[in-house]
Amino acid sequence: MGYRVLLITIAGKPLGAIHKEYGVEPTDEYEEIAESPVTGLTLQNGRYLLYDNDGIFPEDGLLARLSKNASLTLCQVNETVMYSTVHAWENGVEVWSVFHDANQGIDHLETTGNVPDLLDRIRENQISLQGDCDDVCVDFIFDIPVELFVTCGGIRYDEDPENAGPKPWQVLSRVSKTTKKRKWWWPFD
User: Fold this and answer.
1) How far apart are the first and last CA of the chain?
2) Please, what's the largest Cα pairwise distance for the chain?
3) Domain count of the fold of the chain
């Protein structure tokens, strides 16, 4: 099946404001693996990470509010169709994005805005791996947005956070529909 997740890191905003604006409340439950619909944790770098498994993708208005007087980086991954994207927002405005969709070609990669210089190194590395690969079923370009998200202060969606303890993920419960259920781009969901 594969992962279908949304990760959002936010810096510069109080935790209570993040929860309120995202429409979640912390519970007293913690889990080893982020399996609940929405979980959160503070990373070692101080950024707060929302890990969202419930298929609700925030509209631009919510991302603008979450990033007001703060910085936000978002990574969306759908392994079932090899789609990945990373977006950066600052002070209510999207400043750049990187998008890969294997259905548009194994080497597909689109960017908008003033992407970080780190993208060049990541892209070169992944393109080199793709070029060295005899197996056309392996998509190394998929990892470009994911690795950029990591270098911008996030974590890989499929790895444990560093030094986080045995049950680092606080379960968050939705209290409002500040996010709208939006179909993933894939038409068969």
Assistant:
1) 12
2) 49
3) 1
